[in-house]
Amino acid sequence: MYLCTMAKILKIYPNNPQENLINEVIKTLNNGGLIIYPSDTIYALGCNIFDIKAMEKLAQLKKTKLEKSQFSIICNDLSHLSDFTRPIDTSVFRFLKSHLPGPFTFILDANKSLPLAYRGHKTIGIRVPDHPIPQLIVEKLGHPIASTSIKDDDEIIEYSTDPELIAEKYDHLVDIVIDSGYGDNVASTIVDLTSGEPEIIRQGKGII
């Protein structure tokens, strides 16, 4: 298992995110670090989508092989769609625009210019969280990040909501934990749009 030094806890709140702390997160991502960040649903693990070693660490943390992983791509708006997906119909784009930002993961057909860690994937999951912190991180970083939810399979509550407990659990496994207060314990709704019509794969917080 990948181990790093003790995770740094940064208290960053949505109503007034401090620029110097966001910049520290960006520096960590650019240096191949792993972060835990808040979203409009649950807390999640993230890393630089273009750093293959960081992506491998993320896969290792989730106990999966990178080529078999299904990490979502976190964007701050829909302008990055063409970087990762095949051209989409106007009706599908309108549908996306009417539901994003929001608590959804949309599965779309992937194009052939995906980042190295996603090569060979025929579909890709796109998220645009309705939360200023991940939006700001992606904006400042200049490109999307890879993401996967923090799940507690052994507990009654499926997803971890307390950032202090999350920091304790992942102390030597990630570089930064962003403490933004208690998170939600309902994940995003996963919607497959590859057929052109929305098909709900997992019902979560988002309502179609």
UniProtKB/TrEMBL annotation:
<dbReference type="InterPro" id="IPR052532">
    <property type="entry name" value="SUA5_domain"/>
</dbReference>
<dbReference type="InterPro" id="IPR017945">
    <property type="entry name" value="DHBP_synth_RibB-like_a/b_dom"/>
</dbReference>
<dbReference type="GO" id="GO:0003725">
    <property type="term" value="F:double-stranded RNA binding"/>
</dbReference>
<dbReference type="InterPro" id="IPR006070">
    <property type="entry name" value="Sua5-like_dom"/>
</dbReference>
<feature type="domain" description="YrdC-like">
    <location>
        <begin position="19"/>
        <end position="206"/>
    </location>
</feature>
<protein>
    <submittedName>
        <fullName>tRNA threonylcarbamoyl adenosine modification protein, Sua5/YciO/YrdC/YwlC family</fullName>
    </submittedName>
</protein>
<dbReference type="Pfam" id="PF01300">
    <property type="entry name" value="Sua5_yciO_yrdC"/>
</dbReference>
